[in-house]
Amino acid sequence: MLVGHSLGGAIALAVALDHPHTVSRLALIAPLTHVQAEVPTAFRALLLRSATVRRFVAHTFATPIGLATSSTALKRVFAPEAVPHDFRTRGGALLSLRPGAFYNASADLVAIEDASDLAQMEQRYALLTIPANVLFGRQDTVLDWRRHGDALCHRSPRATLKVVDGGHMLPVTAPSTTYDWLRSAIGGTVRESSACESDSWKSSPMFVSVN
């Protein structure tokens, strides 16, 4: 089984599509699955398209500015749930402010903005040959469960979706729920929700379908 959270979900899907023989099933937690027109507010500071500018900022302003603004950024990522008081230290959030970590995160975000790969993946979801179990927080403000979970469910008959109360950081804010769901996914006993019965995702202004 391959497990992916957020952007890791898109990477896991790419592996399953391109190398299906290497993976038995997917467990995707709040995954990015479809082209999104806007960068989530929490990550806009990372959107530095020039590699030169990115490198300069990473080695000059990124750490001090990050230290000053990280609390606000974390609140946006965790919203509407509270950020654990020790997440910056025990959770490793401060490590993301190192120059190398900032540079790589920015490069990843710019790569996502070039949505051609993701758009091509969207057209191939119907070809998934392995089960893809998806867990989403109903109140996720980073990636909407309808646009990324429900939409995947509509495109792939191998996908199931479970929606629970919570935000984007379920592995941290709802560890027991996430653990139980993962155990069910490993055992192939995940019970899907009724989320795939609605076609509301098709009219979402944030959802871009490329034919």
TrEMBL record:
Record's keyword annotation contains Hydrolase: yes
Gene3D superfamilies: alpha/beta hydrolase
Top-rank taxon: Bacteria
Domain (AB hydrolase-1): residue spans on this chain: 2-173
Single Gene Ontology MF annotation: hydrolase activity
Pfam families to which the protein is assigned, alphabetical: Abhydrolase_1
InterPro entries in the record: AB_hydrolase_1, AB_hydrolase_fold
Keyword Hydrolase: yes
Keywords (A to Z) from UniProt: Hydrolase
Name this protein carries in UniProt: Alpha/beta hydrolase fold
Record organism: Paraburkholderia lycopersici
